[in-house]
Backbone:
């Protein structure tokens, strides 16, 4: 489980020792009528449900942004501390009372330290929140000795019942026989396309939230974010567009003026052409509405870019283009509303010219342009404001595109138990090139070993055996003479994951080795020469990997060569769409490398990676990535999650080193990244 650093060390030590003793004594598998340990899936279901209740509190009480954040922060803190206490008590620790005292003291110290008293107190009088919790959990719960200095009320009942009776939810857990792993509770970050976000807005409106109310909440979030970039009484200029984005700008301008800032507002177009909610929002602004052409962006403290949002479908030109160019030339900080004007919301591409924002505030969820290049470089840090559109609505309208991070795959990372041995952790096979092309395979093999594969073997052509033997220690070595040799090796079923491609050679023999691996139905990672050998022959790969878990790892050039002539795969402007179509076509997980690596599965799931570093642009870096992914697959991690985890861990390792990084460094940096993920 993940224990927050603000949990006192004594508590942390007790939890760790208790978990270790429980594993030794087989308590994870203990079963009886009254006690069963809840698994991670059940815990996640409860957390999502309770989080929905907190959102209900936020929306029904129209809380200010900072109070919304405090409520969510307090809730997450309570759940994390509750899980720590639950783990200790459920697993039969003798010193549970001492841990409980530490838990309470640490929790309230955290509330005081973070200044979250207001958000904490806001939870206790709200009946819908506590009533839903009482319905979810067993009705009986013992009271915890809460300090009198806090007005806990019903939120005390929440935490008390949660800690005491969460084990009862095991009966409805989706995987009742799964061994327990306490994984981090961070929710998956959904990324919604502009069209999906529009549908989510419409559903929120249909559920009873007026459109103008959503706009007011968005405008308030913009004003709050602006105050973080500008001091009180600052000179602020708002550039408003003719649509919804402009409406957000009008509301933000009015709020900032009320709070004491000196605000000017310029509009692209005529005020009498505003319609719908934007026209209603414009009534909030009582100051002068200047023409955008007359608005000066010099001698101000902050510019708010509210010209265009996700609805932009053409290149900027005329007055809009000129306004963006003047904003960029001013050298002033720019806060972009939803996304920088001129950036395509779906693809991240620049539509002629785009605002270079200092910071961006978006609503409900990030959009693809916030993660894809070049859009990501134009956004600056992106703040996601909660305007009351629930997660269930977002999942219903999107739900298949994610920001890549540990929340997406940490729950399936291998966590060896005390009785684990190397034969349970898989055996990765890496095919080597000829005598002068052996380094790539060794880089992949080393990475597979570092990521946890129990055994790793390099399959070497006879002429390269001596070269490879001179460099390998823990990695084993087998002779392999082409496709026939690979077929012989794969008769041994213990080889369960395979890397083909790095420096293997571009020829028919490589294609034949791929065919052998696919026929053997082993987990497979294909890169470099294994992809380029199929240049113009992508039809041979149509549906080829539907029965062999496979990850393809091309960069842009390899992708274009592999799918040459397949315009439906290489022509879409959206990188996400290209990768999704390629995954559906081949039946493999496709990982299109770059500063904004995109990973897609045949079932439509996709993730965008954003923790990359330019220092990974070095020879052999991709070979190491192949080894990381194959090593995870050897340990039983599904292909999509293995690809996503491998990309993130690879990037995190590279970023931890920085300047001077070479491929040989990467595998040695992986253990530190794993320690952070698995603790």
Residues:
């Amino acid at each position: 489980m993940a224990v927050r650093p603000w949990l006192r060390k004594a508590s942390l030590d007790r939890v760790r020792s208790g978990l270790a003793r429980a594993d030794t004594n087989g308590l994870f598998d203990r079963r009886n009528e009254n006690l069963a340990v809840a698994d991670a899936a059940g815990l996640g279901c409860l957390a999502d449900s309770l989080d929905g209740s907190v959102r209900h509190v936020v929306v029904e009480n129209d809380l200010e942004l900072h109070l919304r954040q405090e409520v969510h922060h307090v809730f997450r803190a309570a759940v994390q501390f509750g899980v720590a206490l639950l783990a200790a008590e459920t697993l039969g620790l003798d010193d549970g009372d001492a841990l409980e005292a530490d838990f309470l003291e640490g929790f309230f110290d955290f509330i005081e330290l973070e200044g979250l008293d207001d958000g904490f107190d806001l939870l206790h009088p709200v009946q819908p929140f506590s009533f839903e919790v009482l319905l979810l959990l067993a009705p009986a719960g013992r009271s915890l000795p809460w300090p009198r200095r806090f007005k806990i009320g019903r939120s005390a009942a929440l935490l008390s019942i949660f800690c005491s009776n969460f084990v009862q939810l095991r009966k409805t857990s989706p995987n009742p026989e799964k061994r327990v792993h306490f994984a981090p509770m961070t929710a998956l970050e959904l990324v919604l396309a502009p069209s999906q976000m529009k549908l989510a807005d419409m559903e929120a409106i249909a559920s009873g939230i007026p459109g103008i109310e959503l706009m007011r909440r968005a405008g308030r979030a913009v004003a709050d974010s602006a105050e973080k970039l500008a001091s009180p009484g600052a000179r602020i200029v708002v550039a408003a567009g003719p649509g919804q984005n402009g409406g957000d700008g009008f509301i933000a301008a009015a709020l900032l003026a009320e709070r004491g800032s000196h605000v000017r507002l310029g509009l692209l177009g005529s005020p009498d052409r505003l319609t719908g909610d934007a026209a209603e929002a414009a009534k909030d602004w009582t100051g002068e509405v200047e023409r955008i052409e007359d608005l000066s962006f010099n001698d101000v403290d902050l510019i708010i870019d509210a010209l265009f949002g996700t609805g932009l479908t053409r290149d900027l030109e005329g007055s809009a283009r000129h306004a963006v160019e003047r904003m960029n030339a001013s050298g002033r900080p720019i806060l972009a509303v939803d996304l920088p004007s001129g950036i395509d919301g779906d693809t991240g591409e620049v539509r002629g010219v785009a605002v270079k924002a200092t910071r961006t505030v978006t609503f409900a969820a990030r959009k693809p342009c916030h993660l894809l290049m070049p859009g990501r470089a134009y956004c600056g840090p992106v703040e996601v404001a909660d305007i009351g559109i629930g997660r269930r609505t977002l999942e219903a309208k999107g739900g298949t595109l994610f920001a890549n991070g540990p929340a997406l795959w940490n729950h399936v990372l291998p966590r060896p138990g005390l009785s684990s041995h190397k034969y349970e952790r898989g055996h990765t096979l890496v095919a080597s090139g000829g005598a002068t092309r052996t380094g790539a395979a060794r880089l992949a093999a080393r990475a597979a070993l570092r990521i946890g594969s129990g055994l790793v073997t390099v399959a070497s052509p006879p002429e390269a055996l001596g070269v490879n033997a001179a460099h390998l220690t823990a990695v084993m070595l087998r002779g392999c003479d082409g496709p026939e040799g690979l077929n012989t090796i794969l008769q041994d079923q213990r080889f369960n994951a395979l890397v083909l491609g790095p420096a293997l050679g571009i020829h028919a023999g490589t294609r034949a080795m791929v065919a052998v691996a696919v026929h053997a139905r082993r987990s497979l990672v294909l890169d470099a020469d294994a992809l380029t050998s199929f240049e113009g022959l992508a039809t041979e790969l149509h549906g080829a990997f539907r029965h062999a878990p496979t990850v393809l790892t091309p960069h842009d050039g390899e992708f274009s060569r592999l799918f040459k002539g397949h315009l439906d795969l290489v022509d879409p402007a959206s990188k996400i769409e290209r990768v999704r179509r390629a995954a559906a076509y081949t039946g493999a997980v496709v990982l299109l490398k770059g500063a904004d690596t995109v990973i897609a599965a045949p079932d439509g799931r996709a993730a965008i990676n954003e923790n990359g570093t330019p220092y990974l642009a070095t020879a052999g870096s991709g070979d190491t990535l192949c080894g990381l992914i194959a090593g995870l697959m050897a340990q039983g991690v599904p292909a999509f999650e293995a690809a996503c985890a491998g990309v993130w861990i690879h990037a995190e390792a590279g970023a931890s080193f920085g300047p001077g990084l070479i491929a040989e460094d990467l595998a040695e940096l992986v253990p530190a990244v794993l320690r952070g993920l698995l603790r």
